[in-house]
Design goal:
The structure is a single chain. This protein is α/β, with parallel strands linked by helices and 358 residues long. It folds into 2 domains: 169 residues, Rossmann fold (3-Layer(aba) Sandwich), CATH 3.40.50.1970; 185 residues, Up-down Bundle (Dehydroquinate synthase-like, alpha domain). 45% of the residues lie in helices and 18% in strands. The strands form 4 sheets. Strands 4-3-5-6 form a 4-stranded parallel beta sheet, with helices on both faces. A 3-stranded mixed beta sheet has the order 1-2-9, covered by helices on one side. Helix 3 packs across helix 4 and helix 10 packs across helix 13. The protein is globular and about 60 Å long. The termini are far apart.
């Protein structure tokens, strides 16, 4: 087992990464406040892993909520299901919520915890690669709106992140590929050497090699923990974690939540961001091809859906959390391993990228 720390002063918390951690109650119990616990999972994950988590909570007053599975359910109606359970079970301000599942479960459970009685504790037990390397770490919580992804939410840090890599054994290939998009992102924005390692080891990752996956998860979490500790509420550097996401969120919203997985949309979005960076002369076409080849080798799309128009992209990208005073900021590349957040891009070049992708 490896343990990393998200260093946030008195709100610091551990990320435990290893095989067979679902069952090691001593990793979870110290972070549970009080005796009242609500475990939130979904219809896919609960039959596989809920009993193991409940076995770690013996002696506590434990309730469960099982949500439908899918991005299309990451909304206020589903959030209200969690509030109803909390109120019906009369959970008080000293309770703890546990998110058992992928990014949707983690985000929605975290937002319920952030807002129930103005904030209660929660823990993350992510079971997808995307959640393990990205969404479970950093305290971003929220739900989607029909007009924009993740536009309703709060920053609320978990008390612990418990990553049992054995849960990836039951993850389907499409979801594995979606998680690899976020892994590739870390190499592109922060670590050229990790990017090279991914080029050399993508076949092993796709084949679910345990050692390769463990290293990819650990390195991804380490990079994210470092960035979150430096900029918890995304006032600057943390926005780099959104490489490809402005394009990707437009794809998710435009195609209807759940039709493209988040990682699939981010994969195509990163290619678009690399293309726009090259049009500004910040990276060369060889770098764009390297990024595109790696994303393609992970089984991810490298172009947006053909039915999306340039104007649809522009309209949806305008509803983005990185927009400031009506101006859209984008995460672009200065090199493989170096990214910037900027509003200083040329609109006509953005148009060329959208035209080329259409």
């Amino acid at each position: 087992m490896k343990t990393l720390t998200v260093a946030l002063g008195d709100r610091s918390y551990p990320i435990h990464i290893g095989q067979g951690l679902l069952g090691q109650a001593d990793l979870l119990r110290p972070h549970i406040r009080g005796r009242q616990v609500l475990v939130v999972s979904n219809e896919t994950v609960a039959p596989l892993y809920l009993d193991r988590v409940l076995g770690m909570l013996t002696g506590l007053d434990v309730s469960t909520v099982i949500l439908p599975d899918g991005e299309q359910y990451k909304n206020l109606d589903t959030l209200n299901t969690i509030y109803t359970a909390l109120l019906e079970k009369r959970l008080n301000r000293g309770c703890t919520l546990i998110a058992l599942g992928g990014g949707v479960v983690g985000d929605i459970t975290g937002f319920a915890a952030a807002s129930y009685q103005r904030g209660v504790a929660f823990l993350q037990v992510p079971t997808t690669l995307l959640a393990q390397v990205d969404s479970s770490v950093g305290g971003k919580t929220g739900v989607n709106h029909a007009l924009g992804k993740n536009m309703i939410g709060a920053f609320h840090q978990p008390g612990c992140v418990l990553i049992d890599t054995n849960t990836l054994d039951t993850l389907d290939d499409r979801q594995l590929a979606a998680g690899l998009a976020e892994v590739i992102k870390y190499g592109l924005i922060h670590d050229a050497e990790f990017f090279r390692w991914l080029e050399q080891n993508m076949a092993a990752l796709m084949a679910r090699d345990k050692a390769a996956l463990a290293y990819a998860i650990e390195r991804s979490c380490s990079i994210k923990a470092e960035i979150v500790a430096a900029d918890e509420r995304e006032s600057g550097r943390r926005a780099l974690l959104n490489l490809g996401h402005t394009f990707g969120h437009a794809i998710e919203t435009g195609t209807g939540y759940g039709n493209w997985l988040h990682g699939e949309a981010v994969g195509a979005g990163m290619v678009m961001a690399a293309d726009l960076s090259a049009r500004h002369g910040w990276i060369n076409r060889a770098d764009v091809e390297r990024a595109t080849a790696l994303i393609r080798s992970a089984g991810l799309p490298v172009a947006p859906p053909p039915e999306m128009s340039k104007q649809q992209f522009l309209d949806l990208m305008a509803v983005d959390k990185k927009a400031v005073d009506g101006g859209l900021r984008l995460v672009l590349l200065k090199a493989i391993g170096i990214a910037i957040v900027t509003a200083d891009y040329r609109a006509e070049l953005l148009g060329e990228t959208l035209d080329a992708a259409a």
